[in-house]
Amino acid sequence: MELDEMLGQNHDIYHEFPEYTQQIEKLRTSNSDFAKLFDEYTELNREVIRIEQLVEPRSHEFHESLKKKRLRAKDKIYEYFHEQG
To answer: What pTM was estimated for this model as a whole?
Structure first.
């Protein structure tokens, strides 16, 4: 995959987990911890996109650290889908 293609990928939660759209909406409105985690993931994703689009240039190390935080948040979100049955 070319670098330009990778940078253009959409990593919002709905694109990452399209099969869980209904659960995402339900959890966002019924579980404040999930809603906070969803918001955290969304903000991290926005920051990564801004860096990748050179809107807010940062060091490679900072960019990678944000992507790792985003991945950890994504993993936590995924756990919610399996806790709910």
So the answer is: 0.84
Give the contacts of 42 (CB within 8 A, at least 6 positions apart). Answer: 12, 13
Distances, alpha carbon 84 to alpha carbons 3, 22, 45, 70, in Å: 37, 12, 25, 22
Phi, psi of 2 (to 5 degrees): -75, 150
For the chain, what are the domain ranges? 32-85
Task: For residue 4, give the 3-state DSSP assignment.
Answer: helix
Write out pLDDT tens, residues 26-37: 999 999 999 999
Q: Which residues are CB-contacts of 67 (< 8 A; sequence separation ≥ 6)?
A: 48
Taking only the tens place, the pLDDT of each residue in 25-76 is 999 999 999 999 999 999 999 999 999 988 888 999 999 999 999 999 999 9
Tokens of 79: 């756990």
